[in-house]
Amino acid sequence: MAIESQYYLLLSAAIFCIGVYGILTRQNALLFLMSVELMLNAANINLVAFSFYHGNLTGQVFSLFTMALAAAEVAVGIGIVLVLYRNFEDIDVTKAATMRW
Prior knowledge:
The protein is mainly α and 101 residues long. The chain has one domain: Helix Hairpins (Orthogonal Bundle), CATH 1.10.287. It has three helices and no strands. The protein is elongated.
């Protein structure tokens, strides 16, 4: 018996909501990155679920591109976190508003 697509969509919605909650409530830059990754993974679950539902591989291909985008986003994000830590000795993103040239 195959799992129905609505369960994948509910899982994806739950993971996406956890990611949105993490972005709206946290001040730590690393937790921001983790929350964005959760949101991208929720989108990947949707892409793969709809790809399976429609019987083609388009969603899975887009999911691979999204994973590559997530890897690039993490590389840039870690660089930003390092600069935050060097300048402020903390990774609190609310202090970044005080950065000047």
